[in-house]
Design brief:
heterodimer; A: OB fold (Dihydrolipoamide Acetyltransferase, E2P); 5-stranded antiparallel beta sheet; 3 helices; 10 strands; 11% helix; B: alpha/beta; Peroxisomal Thiolase, Chain A, domain 1; two-stranded antiparallel sheet; 19% strand; globular
């Protein structure tokens, strides 16, 4: 049973939770995978991991590697943290990153929008200087925070190889220097 | 908006049920009593309000997040023999949904009159904002995709929705702050409100940032309280003390697609009201243009705005204009949360906004107006603060109200009532 301490929280994946076991094992391999529906009429990826296809209800699926790059679709920026270990990391960002893969499918407003915090290229929580650079439209790539054997969390960092918007959209009011 | 349907068909229960009694405890931070004692207090107040004895109540329902006392205990305390009870999991938007289920239970012949309650020590026991004991629970399974990122409390969970609305439509912090400003005006004329202080837009946007885009004053209060209401059929409703609030329609826990992680299905700045409106207005036989007073759930300033917009009270994207225009102020075209709501009166997971609208429809909200010899307020309809000679919060000539219940961006409920 993958289990480990992370920022003061005990994170656990139960042995019978096959979907999350596979998801976080791929993350632990630093090789992002998602479930793909095997129905040839459907063939869609899904996130977060689940037990059937949200578009065709098929229970049959296969895990496939997915290019983990995308664009910030929206975010929250926590200044008053609740969980104790997050307090010293505040302000921290919660990013909703829309993957390039399958964006606008199967309908124009649908996409794979993967959550994560903003971290630096080494996986450390972003400081104020980095937080200020990121907003809606920023181009991101995935990195992984290792928690335990078989359990790493996807996180997001600025994609150094991508063309970034001149000014990503940020909340109009500056608070605490960000 | 009004849809032509055959309301004599068995399927439709429009106008056939009513709320006959409402009650609550004091709104406090530090109740000093159990949720059992609080719940008993609120239900007894609702019984006294209706003038209904325990022997004429035979159904009980409640909702909680494992932070309440179950129906059998309260029924035992109050000498109510139950033919039906059900205690469900749920927070916001449960109250409207349970009213619908109570109607269903009565219609099925399972019982005749149902009391619905929500009892919570939302400040002194289970902090609704997620602080305290709830902040250190182990994180496993599906929660790994959210709580592990410090994405955990309601405000944190909803913030991408709120932020995206600002991005999509240019909604400003100052526009949204007007929700708090207006609700605080209403609360200042409400003797029961926990926070009675009127605030300004500057107060809101200069209060400390909790989670962008939410300042402290964009967030509701956390309080200890219980609330209760009594539902019965219209043929019995007129046997009791008050003018019933008749139920025109209800919609319960209507969802956007993918509420396992609703952000997958955009636009994420659209909320469940987009789907609810097609059910509630059909069931009630009225449209938003007929609604004179709203109770749009205000866990946050943004939640009132997003719902009012998606139900069709204004065009999509114009919610910021709607909430800052004065429409929803007492004296405006369609007041919202005339008690001060969750932002000011107290946090009840939606019940206090229904209680308020029941009293509004009776013409009997409590305020600072003088009383007549029967202990009833002689309403002045002067909505200025009490110290400036106002102090009223009764809406005149009210016929139809609507409650807009919120669980989260992807889930909500609604209730439309008329004066009986």
């Amino acid at each position: 049973m993958p289990q480990g301490e992370y920022l003061g929280m005990t994170l656990t994946v139960l042995d019978l939770d096959q979907e999350n076991l596979a998801y976080f094992q791929h993350c632990a391999n630093h090789d992002f995978h998602l479930q793909r529906c095997v129905d040839p009429e459907c063939d869609l990826l899904r996130y977060p991991p689940g037990t059937a296809c949200p578009w065709c209800s098929s229970r049959e699926m296969v895990w496939v590697p997915v290019d983990a790059r995308g664009t910030v679709h929206s975010y929250g920026e926590v200044h008053h943290a609740i969980q104790p270990a997050f307090r010293e990391r505040a302000p921290y960002m919660i990013l909703l990153v829309e993957l390039d893969t399958q964006a606008g499918e199967p309908t124009e407003h649908e996409a794979l929008r993967v959550a994560g915090n903003l971290v630096d290229a080494d996986g450390n929580f972003a400081g104020p200087d980095l937080v200020k650079q990121v907003g809606i439209g920023s181009r991101m790539r995935m990195v992984f925070a290792d928690v335990a054997e078989g359990l790493s969390l996807p996180q997001w960092t600025l994609d150094e190889d991508a063309e970034q918007p001149d000014t990503p959209w940020r909340y109009p009011q500056q608070v605490n220097g960000v | 908006m009004t849809t032509d349907i055959d309301t004599t068909a068995d399927k439709y229960l429009r106008d056939k049920y009513a709320i006959i009694g409402v009650g609550e405890t004091t709104y406090t931070r530090g109740s000093g009593m159990t949720t059992r004692a609080l719940g008993t207090w609120a239900i007894k107040n609702a019984m006294d309000d209706a003038g209904i004895p325990a022997s004429e109540i035979d159904g009980m329902m409640s909702y909680s997040g494992n932070d309440s006392t179950a129906s059998p205990m309260l029924a035992g305390d109050l000498g109510i023999r139950l033919n039906f009870y059900m205690d469900v999991q749920g927070g916001g938007s449960s109250s409207e949904a349970l009213i619908g289920l109570a109607i269903g239970a009565i219609e099925a012949g399972m019982c005749e009159t149902v009391v619905i309650f929500r009892s919570m020590n939302g400040f002194s026991q289970v902090r609704i904002g997620g602080t305290g004991a709830r902040a250190s629970v182990p994180v496993g399974g599906d929660a790994l995709h959210a709580a592990a990122y410090g994405w955990f409390s309601a405000g944190q969970n909803f913030s991408p929705t709120f932020m995206r609305h600002m991005y999509d439509y240019g909604t400003t912090p100052e526009q949204v702050a007007m929700v708090k400003v207006i609700h605080s005006e209403h609360a200042s004329n409400n003797p029961k409100a926990y926070y009675k202080q009127r605030v300004t837009v500057e107060d809101v946007v200069n209060s400390r940032m909790i989670c962008k885009p939410l300042h402290l004053l964009d967030c509701c209060v956390e309080t200890d309280n219980a609330t209760a209401l009594i539902v019965t059929s219209v043929d019995k409703a007129y046997d009791y003390r008050n003018t019933p609030a008749r139920i025109l329609g209800v919609a319960g826990r209507v969802c956007k697609p993918r509420i396992d992680m609703h952000f997958q299905h955009g636009p994420i700045s659209t909320v469940a009201g987009h789907y609810i409106k097609d059910i509630i207005y059909r069931n009630a036989g009225v449209g938003p243009e007929d609604i004179q007073c709203t109770g749009a759930y205000d866990a946050f300033t943004f939640t009132s705005m997003l719902q009012l917009e998606d139900y069709g009270f204004c065009k999509k994207g114009e919610g910021g204009d709607y909430v800052s225009s004065g429409v929803m102020r007492l004296g405006g075209e369609r007041p919202n949360n005339t008690s001060g709501g969750h932002l000011c009166e107290g946090y009840t997971h939606g019940m206090n906004m229904i209680i308020e609208n029941v009293r509004q429809l009776r013409g009997e909200v409590d305020c600072y107006c003088p009383k007549d010899e029967n202990d009833r307020r002689i309403h002045s309809y002067n909505y200025a603060p009490p110290e400036e000679g106002g102090g009223c919060r009764q809406v005149p000539n009210l016929e139809i109200t609507q409650n807009l219940g919120w669980a989260m961006p992807g889930t909500g409920s609604s209730l439309i009532m008329r004066k009986g």
